[in-house]
């Protein structure tokens, strides 16, 4: 039972444009949501997080939006850069239990 | 120095064998995890240990046995390996606390191939 879902396996955008990655979850008990970035042959690395009591968190080019009523969050990257090309995992946390989505492969074309 | 290190990085073995993957973190974290990334690329939690105590044990065959000799180590032992055990296994750690945002620090992964 996938509690965190990323329905788009891949996304391709042009350099300089906005990338929007989406994530849905089913468990309303989650209290933190995170995005991780993963390059090939490496472990995922933390990118940005948001508490369930907020609806937006911004860090440089990265902004995460949370819509609790829709159980939906999104990651916006603007402007997108070729170095952003990676797999992005959405994750949701309740106490020690972190659940991941299947990932979205982002390709940013020069 | 690598914060979370796993060994071996690659492991190829025959069905029925027993193997171990070791994990060490030098971040002083209290909680360690094992995740499995299968062929469909899902990252699924297997186990979580907090201060050497098991706190999450997902529906994992009992052929998988985690061992935490101390807070800095969480090893994964697998008995009677099966073809379906082929995957990349990630170790991770985190530090709990009132300002914690739940960030996990991952190792580089250990790719297990069962022939």
Number of helices of chain A: 0
> Strand portion of chain A, in percent?
over 45%
Number of strand segments of chain A: 11
Class inferred from helices and paired strands of chain B: mainly beta
Cα-based radius of gyration of chain A, to the nearest Å: 13 Å
- State the oligomer: heterodimer
Main beta sheet of chain B = 7 strands, mixed
Helix percentage range of chain B? under 10%
Show the largest interface: A-B, 23 and 27 residues
H and E order of chain B: EEEEEEEEEEE
Rounded to the nearest angstrom, the distance between the terminal CA atoms of chain B is 33 Å
Largest β sheet strand count, sense and barrel closure of chain A: 6 strands, mixed
Q: Approximately what portion of the residues of chain B adopt beta-strand conformation?
A: over 45%
Report the helical percentage of chain A.
under 10%
Give the termini distance of chain A in whole angstroms. Answer: 38 Å
How many strands of chain B?
11
Unreliable stretches covering 5 or more consecutive residues of chain A: none
Summarize it.
The complex is a heterodimer of chains A (110) and B (115). Chain A is built from no helices and eleven strands.
Could you please describe the fold and organization of this structure?
The complex is a heterodimer of chains A (110) and B (115). With 110 residues, chain A is mainly beta. Chain A is built from no helices and 11 strands. In chain A, strand 4 and strand 5 form a beta hairpin. Chain A is globular and about 40 Å long. The mean pLDDT of chain B is 89. By secondary structure, chain B is mainly β. Chain B is built from no helices and 11 strands. In chain B, a hairpin with a 2-residue loop joins strand 5 and strand 6. In chain B, strands 2, 4, 5, 6, 9, 10 and 11 form a 7-stranded mixed sheet that branches. At the A-B interface, strand 4, strand 5, strand 9 and strand 10 of A face strand 4, strand 5, strand 9 and strand 10 of B.
């Amino acid at each position: 039972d996938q509690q965190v879902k990323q329905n788009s396996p891949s996304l391709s955008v042009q350099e300089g444009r906005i990338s929007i990655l989406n994530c849905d979850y089913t468990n309303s008990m989650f209290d933190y949501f995170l995005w991780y970035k993963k390059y090939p042959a490496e472990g995922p690395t933390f990118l940005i997080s948001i508490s369930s009591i907020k609806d937006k968190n911004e860090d440089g080019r990265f902004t995460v939006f949370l819509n609790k009523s829709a159980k939906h969050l999104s990651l916006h990257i603007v402007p997108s850069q070729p170095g952003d090309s990676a797999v992005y995992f959405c994750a949701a946390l309740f106490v020690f239990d972190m659940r991941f989505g299947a990932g979205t492969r982002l390709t940013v074309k020069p | 120095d690598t914060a979370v290190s796993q060994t071996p990085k690659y492991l190829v073995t025959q069905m029925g064998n027993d193997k171990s993957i070791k994990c060490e973190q030098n971040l002083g974290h209290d909680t360690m995890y094992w995740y499995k990334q299968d062929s469909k690329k899902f990252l699924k939690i297997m186990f979580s240990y907090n201060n050497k105590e098991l706190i999450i044990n997902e529906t994992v065959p009992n052929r998988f046995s985690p061992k935490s000799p101390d807070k800095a180590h969480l090893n994964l032992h697998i008995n009677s390996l099966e073809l379906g055990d082929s995957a990349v296994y990630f170790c991770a750690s985190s530090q709990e606390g009132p300002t914690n945002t739940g960030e996990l620090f991952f190792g580089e992964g250990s790719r297990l191939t069962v022939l």
